[in-house]
Amino acid sequence: MSSNWGWFAVPRPFTLLEGKAAPLDSDDVDTDQIIPAQFLKVTEKAGLRRYLFYRWRYDESGTLTGKFVLDRQEFAGSKVLVAGRNFGIGSSRENAVWALLDAGICCVVASSFGDIFYSNASKNGLLCVKLLADAVTSLRHRAKGGELSLTVDLASQTISGGGDAVHFDIERHIKERLLSGADDIGLTMGTYEGEIKRYELGAPRYLVPRRRAS
Amino acid sequence: MGESVFTKIWNRHLLAERPDGQSLIYIDRHITHEVTSPLAFESLRAAGRRVRRADLTFATMDHNVPTGDRSAPVADPMSAKQMDTLSANARQFGILCFDYASELQGISHVIGPELGLTLPGITVACGDSHTSTHGALGALALGIGTSEGEHVFATQTLWIRRPKEMRIALDGALPNGASAKDAVMRVIRSIGTGGAIGHAVEFGGSTVEAMTVEERMTIANMIIEGGARTAIVEPDEKVFESLKGTEFGPAGEDWDDAMDYWRTLKSDDGAAYDASLSFDVGGLEPQVSWGTNPAMTVGVSESVPRPGEVGQGERDSTERALKYMGLDGGEAVTSIPIQRVFIGSCTNARLSDLVDAARVAKGRSVAKGVRAMVVPGSQMVKREAERLGLDRIFLEAGFEWRNSGCSLCIGMNEDKLDYGERCAATSNRNFENRMGPGGRTHLMSPLTAAASAVAGTIADPRQVGILDVEQLGMVRRA
Hints:
The structure holds two protein chains of two kinds.
Chain A: E1 17-23, H1 31-34, H2 54-57, E2 80-82, H3 95-102, E3 107-110, H4 115-122, E4 127-130, H5 133-143, E5 149-153, E6 158-160, E7 166-167, H6 172-180, H7 184-202
Parallel strand pairs in A: 1-2, 2-3, 3-4
Antiparallel strand pairs in A: 1-5, 5-6, 6-7
Chain B: H1 5-13, E1 14-17, E2 22-26, E3 29-33, H2 38-47, E4 57-60, H3 77-93, E5 96-98, H4 108-115, E6 123-126, E7 140-143, H5 146-155, E8 157-161, E9 164-171, H6 180-191, E10 199-204, H7 206-210, H8 213-222, E11 230-233, H9 237-243, H10 253-262, E12 275-280, E13 287-289, E14 297-299, H11 317-325, E15 340-343, H12 351-361, E16 371-374, H13 379-387, H14 390-397, E17 400-401, E18 422-425, E19 440-443, H15 446-455, H16 461-464
Parallel strand pairs in B: 3-4, 3-6, 4-5, 6-7, 9-10, 9-12, 10-11, 15-16, 15-18, 16-17, 18-19
Antiparallel strand pairs in B: 1-2, 2-8, 13-14
Helix pairs in contact in B: 2-5, 6-8, 12-14, 12-15
């Protein structure tokens, strides 16, 4: 797997994505599978691709088996991962998103996603596309040979590859954030300082914990 | 139309709504730990930002701390580095940190409620999916990622789409041998791992009303495994009582002010929910997971399903799970031998959980060839258990009595399973490799885990024998 992701840039705007699709033939892929806990001890994002789906890619002795879909020759350079349902459930670890991006995956297609994973993805420029289960199954089937190239057009909310373009729904704020690559914190501080201050001035005293004198 | 307790708290903390459905919520309490925080602090530094409200922010070390001798140096250099990094970040940004050596150290979701940091009607955020635990006190609690954590550090707020609301009613008296853990595992078994995705779950019903606050924490914690965004229980007198005299909870006039608000935290009659489910737990037996997600669960008297017997999943996830778990399918649950037992985690490592395990362990011995460990949820829980003499019950039965941390539940410290080892665990996730590469996890209650330790196989605590609490002979030592 090779990285095409620049970690030192702010999340770059997500424009038109064209790339190979890789099928991941599993439902309920939890974030423990996407990146095991032992690799959460790193303090950098770059290089996390090595640990992506670690237990599915390496044998007991730590040797890469080469059998996992993203390691196979015909799927080299894949940018879209087509999974099943409930992708990214479980632990809140944002490392799951960083590892996918570091491996060059910019878009995951599934029929449903874990809530925290979905939110984490949107904050890092990883597009999660929700399609009906049948459409996901069909895409996964067509991706099996390593010859499916998909075009994901976020502006028009369509995904296409050889056949008809399929429309997908996405929340407007996520779409806008991905398209603009904006920084949430700057936006909140710039626009909502008044509302935050007002809440803080009106908050009761007991909301600030005070340690009991011993 | 009436409002749910969730809606009441939501509205009180709602600062702004955008037309796209995103809401800006004020976060009253932010708890952070050594694993998901380093990159958030790093980004703050890079942008020249500060922690807006260090006085509302607390740090603990839980995910990767060793649970052995605290006076020895931390052996794993990466764990040591993350712990040192948290200490340094807490110092730099002015945050109180319950570090490795602190008497108040413990798992985020155990120490929040026990120290009075978590209160009814407040919003709590923490970089961990099981943050829903705090909802047992009537707080609106949100598990968040690292980018969101950075946003809370900098602004004390969070952008979030308002979750839908689901009410789950549990009714009936839990029979002997069945606990809160069994009830929530039964619910997840029924709704699946994605059944509550996008929903805040309000637990109610006669069973929940009768539960202790700690039992409610178990169900609020574990419903995350059913996909829930968070969970909440209407706070009652038991909750208020549990907060009296806590280290950081309100006192004096502040207490009276808080109570005025807390007493309003009820769901109105006629409150609307997007979904409602109800379960009768009156005939519930102990539950045990057999597979690789928490919905793959059966009753202790049942057999492991054969491939094709389970309806869930479009493809055959049963077969894959059986293979990973080293099971054939069709065997009786109580015939499965175990090599490890873990009594711990944010789901089941509070004092009442340890009392439950002791009700089975007292006067018995851990089976030959089984390594069993008790890992209290906090150092406070540990000290209290020792005052009551629970440590002696466990040590005499052959259990290890350890210091607090997440331990085996996440397998980040040295408490891991070896390849192929099978563990009876009171934690919340049985995912592949969760407790260590190749490790196999069966989820269950503290009663069932202790019974399994004694039997050497997964065992029914009712058959092994459960003492009454009075029979434990607990006398509080000074």
